[in-house]
Amino acid sequence: MTRKKIVRRPAARKARRSNTSASSVASLATFIAKVGDLGSGLVLFRGDRRSKKPLLPRIATEDLRLNSDVLEAEREMLRGFRIRAHPHLERVPDSDWQWLALAQHHGLPTRLLDWTDNPLVALWFAVSRPAYRPPTGGPHDGVVWVYEATPGDSVDTSADKDPFALSRTRVYQPEYIDARIQHQSGWFTVHKHLDGDRFIPLEKQKLQAKKLTRILIAHGAFADIRHDLDRCGINAATVLADLGGLCEHLQWLHSKIADENPQQNARKAHKAKGNRGV
Fold first, then answer.
1. DSSP sequence for the chain
2. Nearest to 107 by CA among 168, 158, 58, 69
3. Beta strands 112-116 and 186-190: pairing type?
4. Fewer CB atoms inside 10 A, N or C side of the chain?
5. At what angle do helices 243-253 and 262-275 cross, to 10 degrees?
6. What does the pLDDT read at residue 7?
7. The pTM is what?
8. Residue 246 lies in a domain
9. What angle do CA 136, 139, 144 make, to 5 degrees?
10. Could you tell me if 52 and 246 are in contact, meaning their C-beta atoms sit under 8 angstroms apart?
11. What are phi and psi of 171, to 5 degrees?
């Protein structure tokens, strides 16, 4: 009797998780439903009105033309911030990590990239202004990036005291030394500087890409979502949590924004008169 030859097929590879979503979200309710399906571990969010913008810290962006190499410029700018920031501080940071986080939140280019554990805050950053329109082509959708971090991603600042010496990109939760960090439920990814004076976008890092997904926000829905977020108390005054944010919110209440319709503008005017712009 001839034995039947058994052919063992190689096990099918597990499909790699895509970092793009199949469709765009066009309402706050749909967005909430999507984030409600996420896991129970550490999940971070980052909103941007430009869905095609890479996940790079500002120190690495092309529009920043530095006078020296990135690492030297970053250290020198932080040193200058530490020297000159004291008159403006209610609490003085006590570590390089705290100084770096504070400088980042006030606009200094660093290797930190802002994230939040509050998905509605991230969504506000994606829709707070009208959709981005490049010089050619139509308007871009917005995006809320979702980063499902693992315990090994978090940095231990008691052991890793130098934020410039990490061996790979890590996740950092700053102390609430600033009202803006607190109100935004702020976190950061801390990006490793590589030889050749460069950084690799988070979505292109082999170890990190599989932890990322993105929720596209339909450009035509920005205005509706912006108004719905305001009804939920998410606006420039509450997210930015300073006088600049309050002024930005008041300006929005009393202005006609390009992507908002007459009914939305009327609703804003009514709110401004009814509660004095709070």
1. -PPPPPPPPPPPPPPPPPSS-SSEE-SHHHHHHHHHTS-SS-EEEEEES-TT-----GGG-TT---SS-HHHHHHHHHHHHHHH-GGG-SS---SHHHHHHHHHHTT---SEEEEES-HHHHHHHHHSSPPP--SSS-PPPEEEEEEE--GGGB--TTT---TT--SS-EEE-----SHHHHHTTEEEEEPPPBTTTB---GGG-HHHHTTEEEEEE-GGGHHHHHHHHHHTT-SHHHHH-SHHHHHHHHHHHTS--TT--HHHHHHHHHHHHHHTT-
2. 58
3. antiparallel
4. N
5. 130
6. 41
7. 0.86
8. no
9. 130
10. no
11. -110, 135
* Domain assignment of residue 75, yes or no: yes
Q: Are 106 and 89 in contact (CB under 8 A)?
A: no
Rounded alpha-carbon distances, angstroms, from residue 56 to 52, 60, 150, 170, 233 = 12, 6, 20, 13, 29
Assess contact for 216 and 47: CB atoms under 8 A: no
Domain holding 206, by residue range, is 24-219
Q: Would residue 209 count as lying in a domain? A: yes
Does residue 124 contact residue 239 with C-beta atoms inside 8 Å? yes
Q: Is residue 84 in a domain? A: yes
- CB distance 149 to 42 below 8 Å: yes
Over residues 202-233, the pLDDT tens digits come to 999 998 999 999 999 999 999 999 999 999 99
Strands 24-25 and 212-217: parallel
Q: 68 vs 246, which has greater pLDDT?
A: 246
Question: Across the strands, what pairs with 198?
Answer: 194
